[in-house]
Amino acid sequence: MLKNTPWLVLTALILAWLGFSQPTQASTNHFSVQTELPSNQVNKKVSYFDLKVSPKQNQTIYIKIKNHDKIAHTYTVATNLATTNDNGVIIYNDLRSKPDSSLTFNIADAVAGKQTVQVAAKSTKRIGIKLELPVTPFKGVALGGINIYQQSTNQDDQPKSGLSLQNKFGYVIGLQLREQTKVTVKPDLKLLTVGPRQVNHRNYVNAKLQNPHANLLHGLKVTSYVTKVGSTKQLLKTTKSQLEMAPNSHFNFALGDGTTELTAGNYQLHLKSSAENGAYQWRFTKKFTVTAAKAKQLKQTTLPDTMPPTNWRLIAFLVSIIVLLLALVIWLLIRHRRQST
């Protein structure tokens, strides 16, 4: 039995190591994209599309997909409306959110539907994207993104060894349309609703902010706090800066760090905001109520404020044991080899 001990120990350690170090199969970026800027490009210093258009205009714009791989790949090309996520960042690949109620012209409706194209190995393909502008003129800018991503293949994108985690590489090309070279729409900001909201089992006060006009809001700063009605004590206070908003979009501005318990009662939101280096400013106050039923529900579904501390002493002990076992295995292997010669 002792003669086989080093091999049994070694086998056990190898199996344990494989259990912790199983590699994740990830996609590889095999392609790149490039735009062909047309003659009606307004800003010729950028690589995205910034086009001056007219009502009822039909136009085809072109991108190039270059496949660097040694095998052919299939790509999906689709255009989405630009929206604003809850971090105050403009995104171009949101397929789940409904367009804001203030939107009158959805840029995705002016672009031909999703395309699926195949590009041969080590080659470049020119892809046409058709635009068809509505009859009714629009003010300001319409903003979206042309999303190009590689479809999964058995070679590099399918999960291996029972793993389901996959990475997808893609590109987004901005698409901005306007009917006037100089956009004269005045920025605006509205507070739509306010109330308690739970995100990932953490409690916040949620202020839904809206950009109701067809222009971008840059350099948005929001300073806010919550009081009980009739009190000046600030229960929650949150300030965020360098936010931005897509045209005709909204996002949920969260107050608090998620750990403050919201008891039943009447509250008031105080919020001030500025944009474009303070050139535009807005102030809002709005009352809201947390009912007893809502407060109970939030408390029951909230995660504990503190997570169990990391037991570094136990981790150090286990690492020491592993090191000693490895040293023992090496010593036994060397001794076994010497006895065999």
From TrEMBL:
Domain WxL Interacting Protein host binding span(s) in chain numbering: 161-298
Keywords: Membrane, Signal, Transmembrane, Transmembrane helix
Domain named WxL Interacting Protein peptidoglycan binding: residues: 31-148
Signal sequence residues: 1-26
InterPro entries xref list: WxLIP_HBD (IPR021759), WxLIP_PGBD (IPR010317)
Keyword Membrane appears in the UniProt entry: yes
Membrane-spanning ranges: 312-334
Domain of life the protein comes from: Bacteria
Keyword Transmembrane: yes
Protein name (Swiss-Prot/TrEMBL): DUF916 and DUF3324 domain-containing protein
Organism this protein belongs to: Lactiplantibacillus daowaiensis
